[in-house]
Amino acid sequence: MTRNRPDPSLLFHPRMPGNWWLRKRTYFLFIVREFTSVFIAAYLIVFLVQLYQLGNGPGAYQAFMGQFASPGWIGFHAVALAFAIYHSLTWFYTTSIVIPLRIGAMVAPRYVFTLLNVAVWLAVSAAILAIYLIW
Amino acid sequence: MNHRKTLEPMWWGLFSAGGVVAAFLIPIHIVLLGLAIPLGWLPGSAEIFQSWIVRLYLFVLISLPLYHWAHRFSFTMSDLGLRPIRKPLAILCYGSAIAGTVVTAWVLLRI
Amino acid sequence: MSERTVSLKVTRYRPGQDSTPTAQSYEVAYPDDWVVLDALNFIKDHVDGTLSFRWSCRMGVCGSCGMMVNGEPRLTCSAFLREFDSQEIRIEPLAHFPVIRDLVIDMSGFLDKLKSVSPWIIRDTEKDPSEGEYLQSPKQLDAYHPFTACINCLLCYSACPIFGLETDFIGPAALALAHRYNEDSRDQGSAARWNAINDHNGAWQCTFVGECSVVCPKSVDPAAAIQRLKVDTAKQWVRSVLLPWGQK
Amino acid sequence: MSMTVTHDILIVGGGGAGLRAAIAAAEHSAGLSIALVSKVYPMRSHTVSAEGGAAGVMREEDSLDQHARDTIFGSDFLADQDAVEALVQEAPRELIQLEHWGCPWSRDPDGRISVRAFGGMSVDRTLYASDKTGFHMLHSLFQTSLKYDNIVRYDECFVTSLLIDDGKVQGVAFVNLFSGRVQAIHAKVVIMCTGGCGRVFPFTTNAAIKTGDGMALAYRAGAPMKDMEFVQYHPTGLPGTGILITEASRGEGGWLCNKDGYRYLQDYGLGPPTETPVHRKMELGPRDILSRCFVQEDQKGRTFEGPHGSYVHLDLRHLGEKLIDQKLPFVRELTRNYVGIDPVVEPIPVRPVVHYMMGGIHTDIDAKTPLDGLYAAGEVACVSINGANRLGSNSLTECLVFGARAGRAAAEYALDQPAPATNPVEALASDEQRRLDAQFFRKEGGTENVADIREAMQQTMEEGAGIYRDEARMQQTCNDLRELRERFANIRIEDRNDIFNTERIGALELDYMLEVAEVIANSALLRRESRGSHTRTDHPERDDANFLKHSLAYRTETGPRIEYAPVSITRWQPEERKY
What we know:
The complex is a heterotetramer.
Chain A: H1 25-55, H2 58-67, H3 71-98, E1 102-103, E2 106-107, H4 110-134
Antiparallel strand pairs in A: 1-2
Chain B: H1 8-36, H2 52-82, H3 86-109
Helix pairs in contact in B: 1-2, 2-3
Chain C: E1 3-12, E2 22-31, H1 36-47, E3 66-69, E4 72-75, E5 88-92, E6 99-101, E7 104-105, H2 108-116, H3 138-144, H4 155-159, H5 161-165, H6 172-182, H7 190-197, H8 211-215, H9 222-242
Helix pairs in contact in C: 2-6, 6-9
């Protein structure tokens, strides 16, 4: 327990500027990382609408899917994909910090865990693609 | 320090699960359904969605990342200046994720 | 040894006189092996005795000389002047903390936070020293040892934007020390630390920016510690929901 | 904070000894109120810089007698043997107690605390927490101290005087750095734990805060200073900064080589050189001898010349990266960060550097000083277990053993004291405020720069009270110090802001250092023999007939008055000290 503290009225209290996240590259990348979730959620809503149209019958679904070839929708999906990939990579990296990968008594360098995750990610993606094509 | 009980472990658990699902599964879905099929690189068929296993999978695929969004969005908006309304913002975000879960289930059931 | 000159732009804040900090520049000629702290001491001794800052061991272990050097939190005893290409180096008090004077910050809040996580060994039954040590294998030691390296220099707090926005956040160093004791095989006190950690101002406030670990001069990796606390706390929470009768 | 605060026990200094004393007192009786006053936050204390380890008998192959004998032999027979016996006997319990409080001691594969070799010790008995032992001890003690609600800290408060009333120490007056105001705390008993005074020398491992505050405070209050002539040079400091390269680097097998790559210690009776370290031989000789060997090697022109004076090499390369990272990671970090040298591939430049004061406030075996109500422990005190030369790794143990003893003894003392009928401290505090205002805070005029006087003091101390000493140079130093004292009366203090005014603190610290430096130089002048770290070219032999005794310095207006007191000898008769 400490009994001695400075007089609060004489302290200078700094304030974070509103644009703090623009002042450092790492902060900016952090905000981008957090905002990947917005693009992923947006994509999922679009996907949900797509599935909703499926419930309205094949005609409605085909009509809805037809619009996806337009440059606007392609652009949307391309941007969503870019953010989704950014999410995947940052997620694998941050997970490597949370879960140390032990090989025997040694803790493996983080990039090993990250690369391992990337490999699993690519394998899972290929598997999903294969299942879809075989179906 | 305020030692109130909190639901934050639950929200964080859902956020993490959503983050994992999004990281491993979402990109290939965008590639497939958002780019490859509309651009005609691959044939588009909706038959696969009739499967119950696929629909269960889709439920997980869509609902969990919504919690991931809710968690990150509410924290990030707080960090970007909405800290004064942190509580209502959190209720709105997590509430939206819950609503999204219900809607997802409904949509998948009516396919 | 070659000498060069640099202009140190130092933040001054005179409590009771200034309402906000101002910057004051000092020209300093320095030999190649000077660190920022040497330059500040030169100013203090020979140019301007009114400049106030903390320092002591000048070997990177007492933790008292942390300041913002060109916007980055650094221990000034190990920040060599020759590292900086610029003609001018900005020296500011550690970011996000209240300033007492000049480069001296108020760290009493940190000490309260440190205490709030009960950073000591907690046991159900104590063994008398005459019965010998608690055995601990090198592997058990390794599990928590990196988190014992914290020198409480508070650079991590200055790197953390979340602490800047929410000064009640317990923050990286205190949480890393909570994790250090939770992971110590001799400790049985994680339940006692649960409330402090499982709080909005505890681990949950952290959004894993990760800069705390980048600036840590002792490679403590508080970011990892906090995320592991979240995992442990979430597991514990699930257990308490699923097995409520098993909990105290 | 009100002006009249009362505690049962007041501890000045929050390092290893102070924190250990506080915890001992807190555990002795929960009803005691304990104040811990420190000029820095406790975890900044200089204990943090100790690296190598703490000695204690932990293994079957070791014995208390061997530890005692090594210590007494290392002290050149000036240590009080009853005190040494207490130290070695209580060391194991204290070290295990610290383990129970969370100190991350390095471990053997079977889970026991590891031990390593250290200079002058005949067995591996130095417990260590990698090579940051002091850091880990300090933080373990500090964090443990947080759990005691009856320990109340006054952080960043600079003590300016002991309050004496009715012939007893009754508290302290201090400047609160946060307000600049002089405050006072009444206490039934005061324990001084402020550490050493290495900063009276220009080249030291000691942190900036090691300015002899407690020594000067006690000395001014009338307590005698014991054996202050004995100043330990550590053989391996980094040139320029004086950063300590731990003796553990030699305990683990490091070599000291001259500029020809030759392990020169073999020429000074410490051989023969062996591949693996042998206890008490070569690089594992005691610090005083190794430091003298460096000077002689330098005089033979066999050292390197650098911008910060001559140096030799500490070679760790043959130990390999794995051992260095495991056991000496801090050495690697320090040399990489501060001199850009990786000890895995390059030898480290080192030279002797002022490290430790064997002397201090005279205390008995229970840490009690001759001044009623004043106790002291740690480097500030002289029990004495270190005599004329301390063995490495005994000082951290000393902080624990005698810190705990001081805490318990002071608790007993406080419990015996009646509550004060009147509280005199308020009046004393305002007297102290007036004194400090006149001499420092509101002092008008003055032309002398504090830093200039400090540098002159350090210079003359190195010249007159260094590794090798002689009458003429010591006398010159004594004269210089008197002159500096006069110049000090004319210092200039510009800063008039009361809050965190470090210019004032710097001046007050110099005031203390001048006091302590004078005691060191005058004690040295009168000890006409060579013993342990005190080596005189004009009296090269040990003289047991005349000087097998402690020197005690008392303050007078004209300078220290030196008296002598017998050394306590129990079972080990003085013999020639040869390794």
